[in-house]
Amino acid sequence: MPERHPAPGIIPRRDELARKGLRLAHLRLICALKETGQMSAAAAQLGVSQPAASRMAAEMEAIVGVPLHTRHARGVVLTPYGERLAMRAGMMLQGLDDTARELTELERGNEGTVSIGAVTGAALDLVLPIIRRARVTRPNISVTVSVDTSDRLAESLLASRIDFFIGRLLGDVDPGRFSLIEIGPEPLAMIARSGHPLTRRPTVTLEESVVYDWVLQASGNLMRRTVEGHLMARQVPLPRKVLSTSSLMLTLAYISQSNAVSVVAKAVADFYSREDGLDGRIVVLPLDTMIEVPAYSLITHAERPLSPASEILFEMVRETVVASRADAGSQARGVYKNDIV
Q: Could you tell me if 263 and 291 are in contact, meaning their C-beta atoms sit under 8 angstroms apart?
């Protein structure tokens, strides 16, 4: 069909597309076409026949006045107009889903489900205490926690699989789509099995530790890059034998049964080195240097408001972060004052 564009300088009226007949079914169809790339699969997703879906697609193009898709041997490809409409349609449909959830939570009164994401250290340091507190003060709120890497958590937030997360913005994500409250750097610690030869030393140097096997996260991971950068900056050779894994359980199991060492978030090290953690099988080594991963933050979607239940837990985390900042500031001032005296 020929392209039709609005006359130059003409601003569309409010509700123009709705007045022309654009319906929710059209929005669902364009999103389904973007997701599946097939008219038949999109029709199945909407529960209509393929001819009906084709008619709806033609209706959409007539309403908006520009071509939205092209057909080829393997299915359907959206035009730049179709991509933009699909993006906007997805945001509108997600907004309706969020509204339904908010209305349900408001009706029930402080009830609802909250999905929180966190990197491992923050999950133990911040999220776990908040969950325990919420179980007492907000017993009707159900909490789901996703522990993952920051890049995957950012993807989950954009896809509305989680409500907010504690982590970092990495890679090529658009920072303009997020709102951040910085928490601070994440300290790391070195752990080994109880009875490891290095536990007999009052302090452990990096040079002494690299003699042993190491367990680290996958190559390229931020924590691993931080550790390797710390070693290289001090002209310490990288460990020759490294087991790479993103599994904390495998890390703990391997070092508890060998002379390998690992560098993990300090919150993780402190948690599992307690006597009631793993029966005292894991200990924190007295490393003579401090290693920190760059600051992580409390992150929300910039364009999607939190639901009432999510807002409650978000504020609990934010208050904890503010309080911990104040404590850290007080301790720093105390140290400075003592140094002067």
A: yes
Encoding tokens for residue 335? 């140290």
Which candidate, 224, 227, 226, 225, places its Cα nearest to that of 245?
A: 224
Q: CA angle at residue 52 from 51 to 53, to 5 degrees?
A: 90
- Is the Cβ–Cβ distance between 262 and 190 less than 8 Å? yes
Condensed to tens digits (0 to 9), the pLDDT of residues 52-98 reads 999 999 999 999 999 999 988 888 999 999 999 999 998 888 888 87
- How far apart CA 83 and CA 34 sit, in angstroms, is 7
The two beta strands, 282-284 and 178-193, are antiparallel
The token duo for 57 is 């697609």
Instruction: Please provide the DSSP assignment of 173-202 as one string.
Output: --GGGEEEEEEEEEEEEEEEETT-GGGGSS
CB 296 within 8 A of CB 168: yes
Among 158, 172, 183, 168, CA closest to 301: 158
For 32, how many CA atoms within 13 A lie in the half-sphere containing its CB?
Answer: 22
| C-beta of residue 178 within 8 angstroms of C-beta of residue 131 | no
- Report CA torsion sign: 319, 306, 81, 33: positive
Token reading at 329: 């500031």
**Phi/psi-derived region of residue 78, left when phi > 0, alpha when psi is between -120 and 50, beta in every other case:** beta
pTM for the model:
0.65
Give yes or no for a contact between 303 and 177, defined as CB atoms under 8 angstroms apart: yes
Q: CA torsion angle for 217, 301, 78, 53 (degrees, to 10)?
A: 110
How far, in whole angstroms, is CA 56 from its chain's centroid? 36
Rounded distance, CA 293 to CA 216, Å? 14
Coil, strand, or helix at residue 247? coil
